[in-house]
Each structure stands twice: as C-alpha cells, then as structure tokens.
Known about the structure:
By secondary structure, this protein is mainly beta. It is 0% helix and 53% strand. The strands form two sheets. Strands 2, 4, 5, 6, 9, 10 and 11 form a seven-stranded mixed sheet that branches. The chain has a four-stranded antiparallel sheet with strand order 1-3-8-7, with no helix packed on it. The termini are far apart.
Amino acid sequence: QVQLMESGGGVVQAGGSLRLSCEVSGITVGANGINWHRQAPGKQREWVATITGSGRTSYAMSLKGRFTVSRDNAKNTVFLQMVSLEPEDTAVYYCKWITTWGQGTQVTVSS
C-alpha cells in the first residue's frame, strides 16, 4: 500500500521561505514520479511541480521560479523548497503519486 505524508507547513511572513517534505512508503521515489499540488481557499486544486523517476523536474509557470522540487532517495522523501513566498501562495499543499494523495499540509503566508 502506497502512502504519502506531507509535513513542513506553517505560518510565514511574505518574503519568507519554507521547505515541505513528502515522506513516501510503499514505492521507491527514485523510480517514480511524485507531484506537488496545492489548493487555496475557494479555489480548485492546481498542479505545482513534478519530479520524475529519472529526476527531471517541471514547474507551473505561475510560480516564477520561486519553488524547487528535489528528493532524497535514502530517505525516500521528496521536498518542495519555497522562497519569496507571497500571500497568494497560501494553500494546502499535497503530494501525489498517480492517484494516491497525501493528507496535505497547510501553508499560510501573511502580508
């Protein structure tokens, strides 16, 4: 059974940084693509970033290069480093493998 668990969310001031973690069990992140999504209040869930099994990364253009996805194969964990955070980044952030979602972690950016 595949499980994903996000952590690292919190409250941060605009301009600050956070690093989210997605701890994965049941599959090997070094051989599987993991996606990050987010859902802001009153909005649809949107795709944020992907790291493929081969390590290729891709990002939503709206992020303007502020987010970086990476992974630690030894820890079987995927990370989302976020810098220059804006109030518009406030959302619940989820990681996903195919159709399996984590429970999400709340990120709140205050102005």
